[in-house]
């Protein structure tokens, strides 16, 4: 691994920090890398007892779209990923999950950010209380049967890393291909 | 959609820009969003005629690791995604693909970045010329049979969104579950 020579905080915003770090490689080459550091997050794949996936629609200003996504959110400083998953599901969708199962985790784009996302399957719901963090707002809650989700994946209708990974991981594990395939 | 009120460039770095934008929602609420804008990228899933996937190892300073990943890179201003995929595969692995097929695309983390990645399957190789962009460096090239990749996915040994998405999409389309399942 290259040696870290120095570190500078370049931007300290409400959503993430940007650091610029200077490194020296073993062959003596010096170079810089910029890194976005937003903290880590959870993604929840809620499956109803009718095998429907629960999605949320929200405005995503960064891409200029109303996006269909799985419920997701930041892990608070004092939280375990599983606790964050339960909390975010209740906040965004208004349901509490009695069953939470870890599915996978991933770095979203390690060329320039250290963000990692933990993905949980949620099942067996009871009514909870929907409420939003700050200026976040869920516009709609939408249920799609799992088999229809697989068709949408094939047709490239699911645009976000979080939903592609969560649904494929779940489907592979519990349907075709995996242990139960 | 909320109305854009103003935009400010907060950071202009070698790898990405950061913009802060101010919006007004239909109910009158004003708020800001920060956005990282690194441009778009390609991911290549190279499959040999023995059904092995070709990976690269490189140092990823943002996460402090030597990472095993699929070949990937930025799309240049004058390039189509498919051209970028061919170029990056040759630069990073030193092979030219005679067959390139679009698999899927995804936003990596639309809560704070507009980055989109296009994923291509590459097959039928001939020798090309490996060379690296600037300070990027490929440390190793590693081949793993597709069935072993599926086991590694199940065991959460593949840490990056790009490889989870590319391999599941390919496997679902060409093996179990998909049209040929």
Fold blueprint:
Two copies of one chain form a homodimer.
Chain A: E1 3-12, E2 17-24, E3 30-37, E4 41-46, E5 52-60, E6 65-69, E7 72-74, H1 81-93, E8 95-107, E9 116-127, E10 140-145, H2 146-154, H3 161-174
Parallel strand pairs in A: 4-9
Antiparallel strand pairs in A: 1-2, 2-3, 4-7, 5-6, 5-10, 8-9
Structure description:
The structure is a homodimer of 181-residue chains. Chain A has 181 residues and is α+β, with helices and mostly antiparallel strands. Chain A folds into 2 domains: 3-37; 41-174, Nucleoside Triphosphate Pyrophosphohydrolase (Alpha-Beta Complex), CATH 3.90.79.10. Helix content of chain A is 20%, strand content 44%. Chain A contains 3 helices and 10 strands; from the N terminus they run E-E-E-E-E-E-E-H-E-E-E-H-H. The first copy, chain A, has helices at 81-93, 146-154, 161-174, and strands spanning 3-12, 17-24, 30-37, 41-46, 52-60, 65-69, 72-74, 95-107, 116-127, 140-145. A 4-stranded mixed sheet of chain A has the order 7-4-9-8, with helices on both faces. In chain A, strands 1-2-3 form a 3-stranded antiparallel sheet, with no helix packed on it. In chain A, strand 8 (95-107) and strand 9 form a beta hairpin. In chain A, helix 2 packs across helix 3 (161-174). The longest helix of chain A has 14 residues, at 161-174. Chain A is elongated and about 60 Å long. Chain A starts with a strand and ends in a 7-residue tail after the last helix. In chain A, 40% of the residues are buried. The model of chain A has no long low-confidence stretch (mean pLDDT 94). Chains A and B meet through strand 2, strand 3, strand 6, strand 8 and helix 2 of A and strand 2, strand 3, strand 6, strand 8 and helix 2 of B.
């Amino acid at each position: 691994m290259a040696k870290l020579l120095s570190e500078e905080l370049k931007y300290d915003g409400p959503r993430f920090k940007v650091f610029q770090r200077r490194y020296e490689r073993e062959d003596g080459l010096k170079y810089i890398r910029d890194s976005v550091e937003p903290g880590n997050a959870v993604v929840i794949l809620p499956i109803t007892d009718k095998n429907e996936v629960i999605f949320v629609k929200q405005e995503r200003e960064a891409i200029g779209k109303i996006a269909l996504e799985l419920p997701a959110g930041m892990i608070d400083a004092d939280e375990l990923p599983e606790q964050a998953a339960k909390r975010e599901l209740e906040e965004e969708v208004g349901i509490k999950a009695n069953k939470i199962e870890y599915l996978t985790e991933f770095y979203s784009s390690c060329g320039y950010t250290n963000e990692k996302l933990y993905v949980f399957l949620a099942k067996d719901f009871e009514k909870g209380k929907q409420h939003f963090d700050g200026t976040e707002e869920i516009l709609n809650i939408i249920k799609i049967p799992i088999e229809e989700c697989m068709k949408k994946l094939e047709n490239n209708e699911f645009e976000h890393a979080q939903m592609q990974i969560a649904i494929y991981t779940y489907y592979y594990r519990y349907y075709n291909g995996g242990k139960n395939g």
